[in-house]
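Let's study my pick:
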Amino acid sequence: MMRRFDEQLSELDNKLMEMGTLIETAISHASQAIIKQDIKLAQVVIAGEKQVDQMEKEIEALCLKLLMQQQPVARDLRQISATLKMIRDMERISDQAADISEIVVTMNGATYINSLEHIPQMAAATLKMVSESIDAYVKKDLKLAKSVIKYDDVVDDLFDKVKFDLIKLIRADSSNGEQAIDFLMIAKYFERIGDHARNIAKGVVFFIRGRKTKKVKNDKADLDS
């Protein structure tokens, strides 16, 4: 019985990694769609959202099966509980990559009002957070999970820079307003992706350590403990 349970936990890890690969690809493609103004690539991201939704359902079903049939306790129960929360954040990341791509489609190759700088940096930073949060879960790496939580500050700082740059552009020429709002929404979606990656990492901390991290304002003190 225990061997079968261990096999199912291993299957859970594999499915989570598969879902992780899908959302990492979605973020990467959404970023490239922005930079290259590639509408076809953006449409690939939008279409791929359904596959992530399906993966979420499969993982959720496996988690519920394990909970009902095996009645796990302690660390195993925390792992399954953390996974159920993580896949919700992962599904939201997929949604936001699709939202970014939809904006790229609506912009329809229009000349950009400003050279892209901080938005690609945000994309790279959020991709790093998502990748490392999933790695932290698979490797049971508490130190890596904590570093992901701290790294969210980098994404927040980049969002502030994007917002500041766009405000300057609007003040200089109000006709920049519509596209500036599009870029601000793109940056906001990347910021949210960072927040979801941070949530995943917090779930890993709970799974490994057996207690939740403190509220956001106290994260730094908690992580240093």
Q: What stands out?
A: The domain at 2-223 is CATH 1.20.58.220 (Methane Monooxygenase Hydroxylase; Chain G, domain 1). The two ends are 38 Å apart (CA to CA).
